[in-house]
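QUALITY CONTROL LOG
STEP: pairwise intake check
CHECKER ROLE: data steward
CRITERIA: each record must contain a sequence immediately followed by its structure tokens, with no blank fields

ENTRY 1 OF 2
RESULT FIELD BELOW
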Amino acid sequence: MRILLAEDEHTLGTWLCRALEHSGIQVEWVDDGRLADRALQQRDHDALVLDLGLPGLDGHRVLQRLRERDQRIPALILTARDSVDEKVAALNAGADDFLAKPFALAELEARLHALVRRARGVEHPRFACGPLVYDGTRRQFTLHGEVLALSPRESAVLRALAQRTGEPLSKQQIVDRVFSDQDDVHPEAVEVLVYRLRRRLDGSGARIVTLRGLGYVLEPD
């Protein structure tokens, strides 16, 4: 999962980036509403965590512009404004969920996973492609019921593809979802990881296909 975090509290933003990435969630962090608006237009994300009190462009306007563009990315409002009127206004403006500060990290993670599952029409944290199954609770893949031994990066690439089974992901989209902003990773590195995954999946009933000009797609064999 890759999220956009729009939060101007630097202590909170730094902590959230580290904590969420430790849990396998890739985070792009911006501290200004104008940067958030730009990032939402230019890059692919699975969910938005949005503070309402942003400088430059407040959270309400970021959310309004997002929905005016008909971008259907799930949006979770994260703010210190914990009034009923504030919640109602945010939800009516197009927010999908609302979490007041202070909050428990585990609750934020659970809400994000739930939002993304609902957005994809999946009501449980399992992704499957034929005999290949990812269990989000155990954070592991099984193939024909047996645990599939993968390196962390192989698992992350396969998870990104499994979450979009049947839909192509470009090399750059995979880099954005798998590697943190601090990693100096060239998109061609994805080719090596995909090559390894293809060898592991060979003859299994699930395969990774290259679609010229579009990227890679995981599909039943």
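ENTRY 2 OF 2
RESULT FIELD BELOW
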Amino acid sequence: MTDEDYMKLAIAEALKAQQLGEVPIGAVLVYQGEVVAQAFNLREALQTTASHAEMLVIDKGNQAVESWRLEECTLYVTLEPCPMCAGAIIQARIPRVVFGAYDPKAGCAGSLMNLLNDSRFNHQVEVVGSIMEEDCGKLLTRFFKQLREQKKQAKVLSIVDYKEKNTID
């Protein structure tokens, strides 16, 4: 399978997150050419900071390969890893990360900084970005547009409700 094939699997995971109202980010972990773990963002559902797709897929990967070291793995994720996830990637010794869309607000694999290639750490990661970038980016753009529209609609309904309750007869 190619990087694009694995990214399609990560996108399928992101769509699962979207169906739950989560930010649509998905991740797939490949060990020696075989998918050993898949996950998607569950931060809202679990209400835990570390419930990013990458963190969840790393935990599942540790269980699958029965080691905290994921030295023969490639991590595929639809969005550039944040600082927390980049740190976990380094700690797990993942040698290669492939991501879809860049994250100009929190990306730590090239956008804001590149923690994954910082020579001060004892482990550096090969980073490949922009794989199916347009598809991955559209998932997020559509999600946040819809979220803004829902919030705007809720605000309008709240104002209408307030006016109805506070009308003097």
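INTAKE CHECK: passed for both entries
DESCRIPTIVE NOTE, ENTRY 2: The longest strand covers residues 34-40.
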